Amino acid sequence: MQAVVQELTNLIAEYASFFQSLSEEVLAFKPQPNKWSKKEIIGHLIDSAQNNIRRFVCGQYEPQPKIVYDQDFWVKSQHYQDYSSQDLIQLWVLLNRHICLILSNLPQKNLEKTCDTGKGKVELHTLRYLAEDYVVHLKHHLAQMK
Question: What is the CATH number of the domain that holds 86?
Fold first, then answer.
């Protein structure tokens, strides 16, 4: 798990600086009306962090908690496009640092506990898988913004 934490720590440092270097115009630009701006992508990553925090915590004590979310609804309903860019970036950084703390202290015995992430069907994943996949998902969206 330490490799996941280290990679996440490196991504936080790299992309916090990158996000800060972007103008408000660049962050708010929507390539198409139905496509997310960079601010909305950061918002989506915030939502992902929040949902995964619940998975990492609840997955340790609840038997197979079901934690799913509708990403488009979350982004739209939270109006990330209207959010302060500086606050949005800071929230993303803080939530990811929090994930690093959770994962650094996650007992080895809990890594194989499972969480159901399926919409309409059961999709069980171990906390280990969810942590590793969180970084893969994060990197996918961060690469979109470069």
Answer: 1.20.120.450
